[in-house]
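Good morning C.,

I know you're traveling, so I'll keep this short. The sequence:
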Amino acid sequence: YGTPFRASGAKAAVSALLCGLGGETLGRSLLGTSVFTTLARSMPILGFALSAVTMPTLHGALTYALGKVFQQHFAMGGTFLTFKPQETEAFFRAKFEEGLRTLPDKLEVSQ
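The tokens, ready to paste straight into the viewer:
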């Protein structure tokens, strides 16, 4: 998209978006809460297996949603300096949910 990249600008934009979302979006799914992590760790073998299966999906959905948000922003001529995270929250949430639904299928295909 011809947008100059500055690591500090990218980190600030991503941090602002994720912090602005709070626990509602990420915590709505049990996967994103500390409760899940605690429960998973309390079950020695099953917990490890659950974490190994679910955490890549959660992280993949986050990465997918972030990519879609910035893809849309840059396609509209935006830069890291003009990024307004509060204006992208609904789109991010939709893409995060989309990622949670579609990534498990994609992970199975790629293995």
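Safe travels,
E.
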